[in-house]
Write a structure and sequence with these properties.
This protein has eleven helices and 35 strands. With 672 residues, the chain is of the alpha+beta class. Helix content is 19%, strand content 31%. The longest helix is centred in the C-terminal third of the chain and has 25 residues, at 548-572.
């Protein structure tokens, strides 16, 4: 297989209407941009929304050329675009290659007969804004509608590589792997391989299984297969001797293999396909997670796009995020309502970090989205299928009425309650169909219909849940959560959102706001940097802060206390019934004041350190029945211990109650 990259400097121009791949070659009509990128990263188009045309002239690499009259084996050449936001139509040397929809789905076109020594590739792209936020059509998730991204951001552009690929008569289009029977001696790996064959005949499959991040022997297997012409899927199995299991970093080692498939036809390698794979089994038993048969508690966070400009996320930036999450004792990240860059999934595989993968649906959609959503849901599952880190698919985030989370009108609250607790088409029809589609593609992972679906006795079983007591008034005060927890304990099985906003540290704040509190543009901070000042005012008197450092400390302290309130009470209910604790959220995808514990520049807040403590494997805590107590009233202060490790941990506990002067009122010491 030969490869020619078409990344690099492209020409680009905005347009009101497309012209079937025919555009003036006048250089003055075109700007230039290094791709992959988003068009808003270009200084001329920072606020642009709509249609854009990209143009690339290139010479065909000598490896792709076959001289007339030579007896070389038949070669096929494919044009591959790995990711384009959102609608795209490529034209190669004037030939229409067809309309494509879907920002994360690669597209591949056979173009051997169209190529010349000098070539022109035109890509017409449309990525519109969706003005109706409760009747959406684009499957872009948080990139089109979210309260954690600058609303003036548009993701349009060629955000992933473009290349030419040369193969023999048969192309390996896709390879899906999952673990079948498993014991200490051998694991049986099932495969589903999709081949595009130009000619029928007997071919040989050569599997090479190489330990990727641990020491071990390389294993090679060969199989023979009779191919028919056209695009077809074939299935089978192969064995892996002495299998080393994939574990999360807190349970063991994330042992990964590199599995390489070579397809030999007529004694020549026609095509190869390589993937990272981990041998493991994951189950949710009544929402209690089990990895390789071991029950454990999930402690994680919601992962926004690594950057609003997701094309800029490098492998190094992804690896840094995983390091921060591991250091905070997290074992899962929820990829929140988007498909991220491939580097994130590879980093998670090697870091031993579980991923809950959302399909890119966020809040409400119109009924016209259903056929395309079903198609793209299947594509998502197949695209990400082999990653051992991914253990859960979720088809929709919060399938209820939300247009603007800052809107606190009574009518808005009523509509949110109605669509959350009653019947709505998005959840009962759209998400049910998408769940069925994902389950048909992948029988090895649990599929969640929609995130934030409450269990209502006698009505529905519910899924994972979101709680914003102490932030959104539609939920109520923080202490009111305890009443909900007692009356509806099923809603504590797996909690995937709770939190409060806070300001980043001072050195980060002054990068996007004034350092003097009296001259901060609060309206701009709310419109472009996600600050919900009116919401925060319900809980703390932040407007009385005398300086920006005081405001930072005040908001980070409130965020820390709120997060710990939830975490303590959910860890107290570990396995009774809680199986997962996933606050909202890990980092900022752009400079912001929001729910993150790590800011855009990856500087941890005080709330990161507080969560690191609250997620410690061995953890001591108390739960107070109230925030205030009357003078001379006896108060019981229980000290609880929890150990999330899979082995005993000897500890010494010192519990102290201090008066306002810092003197001991009560003290207790013990070993456990």
């Amino acid at each position: 297989m030969d490869y020619q990259s078409l990344d690099g400097r492209w020409h680009m121009r905005p347009t009101d209407s497309f012209h079937e791949g025919v555009y003036s070659p006048d250089p003055a009509a075109w700007a230039e941009q290094e791709l992959p990128a988003h068009w808003q990263q270009h200084p001329l188009f920072e606020q642009y929304v709509g249609r854009m045309v990209y143009r690339r002239q290139f010479q065909l690499d000598r490896r792709f050329r076959i001289s007339p009259g030579t007896q070389a084996a038949p070669r096929r050449v494919w044009l591959r675009l790995d990711g384009v936001f959102y609608f795209s139509r490529p034209w190669l040397n004037g030939r229409d290659l067809g309309l494509h929809e879907g920002y994360f789905i690669p597209q591949e076109h056979e173009v051997g007969e169209l190529l010349r020594e000098d070539n022109e590739l035109i890509v017409e792209i449309e990525c519109p804004d969706e003005h109706s936020k409760t009747d959406k059509r684009l499957i872009t998730g948080v990139f089109s509608h979210w309260d954690c991204i600058d609303p003036q951001t548009n993701p349009g552009g060629i955000w992933r590589p473009v290349s030419l690929i040369s193969t023999g008569p048969t192309r390996i289009k896709q390879l899906l792997l999952d673990t079948g029977s498993l014991d200490e001696a051998e694991a049986q790996v099932r495969f589903r391989a999709t081949f595009d064959a130009a000619q029928a005949g007997l071919v040989r499959l050569r599997w090479t299984i190489t330990p990727k991040n641990f020491a071990g022997a390389i294993q090679i297997h060969t199989q023979e297969l009779g191919l028919q012409t056209g695009l077809r899927e074939y299935s089978g199995t192969f064995g892996v001797r002495d299998p080393q299991l994939w574990w999360t970093h807190d349970l063991g080692q994330p042992n990964c293999y590199t599995i390489r498939l070579e397809l030999l036809q007529g004694g020549e390698v026609s095509d190869t396909h390589q993937t990272t794979y981990g041998i493991r089994r994951f189950e949710l038993r009544n929402w209690l997670p089990h990895l390789n048969g071991v029950r454990f508690l999930i402690k994680g966070n919601n992962y926004a796009p690594g950057d609003t400009r997701i094309a800029s996320m490098t492998a190094q930036r992804c690896e840094r995020d995983l390091e921060l999450a591991r250091a905070c004792h997290m074992n899962l990240l929820r990829v929140h309502a988007h498909i991220d860059t491939p580097a994130l999934y590879e980093a998670a595989n090697l870091a031993g970090m579980l991923l809950w993968q959302d399909f890119p649906l966020q809040w409400l959609y119109g009924q016209a989205v259903l056929p395309e959503a079903e198609r793209q849901a299947r594509q998502m599952v197949r695209l990400l299928y082999n990653h051992p880190a991914i253990v859960i698919w979720c088809m929709h985030n919060e399938a209820h009425f939300t247009a603007d989370t800052k809107d606190e009108r009574a009518i808005t609250k009523a509509r949110q309650y109605a669509t959350s607790l009653g019947w709505n088409w998005n959840r009962e029809v759209l998400d049910t169909r998408l769940k069925r589609a994902a389950e048909q593609e992948d029988r090895s992972r649990p599929v969640v219909r929609s995130s934030g679906e409450y269990a209502i006795p006698g009505v529905r079983a519910g899924t994972d849940t979101h709680f914003y007591h102490g932030w959104y008034t539609v939920y109520g005060k923080l202490r009111q959560w305890e009443g909900v927890a007692k009356r509806f304990p099923a809603n504590l099985r797996f909690v995937t959102e709770f939190g409060a906003q806070s300001f980043p540290n001072l050195e980060s704040c002054v990068k996007f706001m004034d350092g003097e509190i009296d001259t901060i543009d609060w309206q701009h901070l709310g419109e472009r940097h996600q600050f919900q000042g009116d919401m925060l005012a319900h809980w703390i008197d932040w407007r009385a802060a005398r300086s920006l450092p005081e405001l930072i400390d005040q908001t980070q302290r409130y965020q820390s206390e709120l997060n710990r309130f939830y975490i303590d009470r959910l860890r107290h209910r570990k396995y009774r019934p809680t199986g997962g604790i996933v606050p909202f959220m890990f980092h900022d995808p752009n400079p912001a004041v929001q729910w993150s514990i790590v800011d855009y520049w990856r500087v941890p807040k005080a709330s990161y350190q507080a969560m690191r403590l609250a997620f410690s494997p061995q953890y001591a805590y108390t739960i107070l029945e109230a925030e205030r107590f009357s003078v001379k009233t006896p108060v019981d202060l229980p000290v609880y211990l929890v150990n999330d490790a899979q082995q005993p941990a000897p500890v010494r506990i010192v519990a102290r109650l201090l008066d306002p002067q810092g003197r001991d009122v009560a003290r207790s010491e013990r070993e456990a």
